[in-house]
């Protein structure tokens, strides 16, 4: 398994040699690649083995899964048929998904994935593609299909992977946050943005509440899904327009603001050390752009985890402020 930054010419040679690749990088580079067994998404932020965190528009991040993939199928999904992604996966493998940020497919997946037919029947992992932060609202994030040779702004791309005989896959999540001891927050409907929140059973203006409590919005809301802690990251708080998130809140779910961290970067580093990855074959990983920014990861290494820095992480459903990894190993 290879996870490395390479020139577009080197990646093109790998594709021509029949390699099965998961790619991340600049739109101009992905658009130069020949057809083949690959999918990719736009992003300029990465963690590499040699340079640590970096911004690059002249190299692609390559995850080569050729040795563990017996066969692959590349499929494009729109917001209307994305609900079949688990059913289409078959069995004996996993599916890798990339979705452009703020696209109809992104919104649909975020809101509906837990209710998809056969949800969780096979591992589904991947990320939300993005752009330079300075280009937000100016340049559309994209995904690229080696199967069709085309790029897409509104749809998701999935590579359904049948694993080689004797291989198995596990998905891991590293989350530095836990629920704090404060109020319980609920919401009236599933949404990416809201003006109101129910605090301990009492309806309040959410932006006003955040200001009153002086909540640090670098810290997410955290829900406990049967023992799995899921973050909902704040995107913006405005007294006039309300509160927006990078992933949706759901009605019927009880949230708490995350427990404060004395040192965000140190907490993230400590969590990396505490996660027992010794002996695991980390075949892919991605980390959130918010962790990259708030932990000041530029120039810093997070070994053994390398890969794209993303606008959202996917492990069965959409996640925020989380590191997701895949361990493909011998049975």
Gyration radius, in Å: 19 Å
The helix content, as a percent range, equals: 10-25%
How much is the average pLDDT?
Answer: 94
- The tally of helices reads 6
The order of strands across the largest sheet is 1-6-2-3-10-11
Q: Gap between N and C termini, in Å?
A: 16 Å
Unreliable parts: none
Secondary structure class reads mainly beta
Biggest sheet layout:
6 strands, mixed
What is the overall shape? globular
**How many β-strands, per DSSP?**
27
Percent of residues in β-strands: 35-45%
Walk me through this protein's architecture.
Helices cover 14% and strands 41% of the residues. It has helices at 8-16, 27-30, 104-112, 206-213, 264-274, 289-294, and strands at residues 2-6, 21-25, 38-42, 45-48, 52-55, 60-64, 69-77, 93-100, 124-129, 143-145, 151-152, 156-163, 167-174, 185-186, 191-194, 196-199, 202-205, 221-225, 228-232, 234-238, 242-249, 255-257, 282-288, 307-310, 313-315, 317-319, 323-330. A hairpin with a 2-residue loop joins β18 and β19. The radius of gyration is 19 Å and the shape is globular.
Concise account of the structure shown:
Helix content is 14%, strand content 41%. The chain is mainly beta and 331 residues long.
Topology:
Layout: E1 2-6, H1 8-16, E2 21-25, H2 27-30, E3 38-42, E4 45-48, E5 52-55, E6 60-64, E7 69-77, E8 93-100, H3 104-112, E9 124-129, E10 143-145, E11 151-152, E12 156-163, E13 167-174, E14 185-186, E15 191-194, E16 196-199, E17 202-205, H4 206-213, E18 221-225, E19 228-232, E20 234-238, E21 242-249, E22 255-257, H5 264-274, E23 282-288, H6 289-294, E24 307-310, E25 313-315, E26 317-319, E27 323-330
Parallel strand pairs: 2-3, 8-9, 23-24
Antiparallel strand pairs: 1-6, 2-6, 3-10, 4-5, 4-24, 7-12, 8-12, 9-25, 10-11, 13-27, 14-16, 15-21, 16-17, 18-19, 18-22, 20-21, 23-27, 25-26
């Amino acid at each position: 398994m290879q996870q490395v930054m390479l020139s577009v010419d080197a990646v093109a040679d790998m594709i021509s040699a029949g390699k099965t690749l998961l790619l991340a990088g600049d739109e101009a580079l992905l658009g130069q690649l020949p057809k083949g067994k690959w999918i990719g998404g736009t992003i300029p932020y990465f963690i590499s083995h040699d340079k640590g965190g970096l911004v690059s528009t002249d190299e692609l991040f390559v995850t080569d899964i050729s040795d563990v993939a017996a066969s692959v199928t590349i499929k494009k999904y729109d917001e209307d048929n994305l609900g079949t992604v688990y059913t289409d996966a078959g069995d004996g493998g996993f599916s890798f998904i990339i979705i452009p940020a703020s696209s109809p497919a992104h919104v649909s997946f975020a809101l509906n994935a837990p209710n998809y037919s056969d949800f969780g029947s096979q591992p589904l992992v991947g990320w939300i593609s993005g752009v330079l932060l300075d280009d937000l609202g100016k340049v559309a994030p994209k995904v690229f299909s080696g199967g069709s040779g085309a790029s897409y702004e509104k749809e998701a791309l999935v590579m359904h992977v049948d694993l080689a005989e004797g291989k198995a896959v596990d998905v891991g999540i590293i989350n530095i946050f836990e629920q704090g001891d404060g109020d319980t927050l609920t919401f009236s409907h599933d949404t990416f943005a809201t003006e109101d929140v129910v605090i301990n059973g009492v309806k309040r203006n959410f932006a006003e509440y955040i200001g009153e409590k002086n909540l640090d919005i670098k810290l997410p809301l955290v829900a406990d899904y049967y023992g799995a802690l899921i973050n909902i990251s704040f995107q913006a708080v405005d007294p006039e327009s309300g509160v927006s998130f990078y992933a949706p809140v759901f009605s019927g779910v009880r949230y708490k603001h995350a427990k404060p961290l004395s040192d965000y970067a140190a907490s993230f580093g400590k969590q990396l050390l505490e996660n027992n990855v010794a002996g695991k074959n980390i075949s892919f990983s991605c980390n959130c752009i918010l962790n990259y920014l708030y932990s000041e990861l530029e120039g810093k290494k997070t070994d053994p985890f390398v890969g794209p820095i993303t606008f959202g992480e996917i492990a069965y459903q959409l996640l925020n402020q989380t590191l997701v990894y895949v361990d493909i190993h011998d049975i």
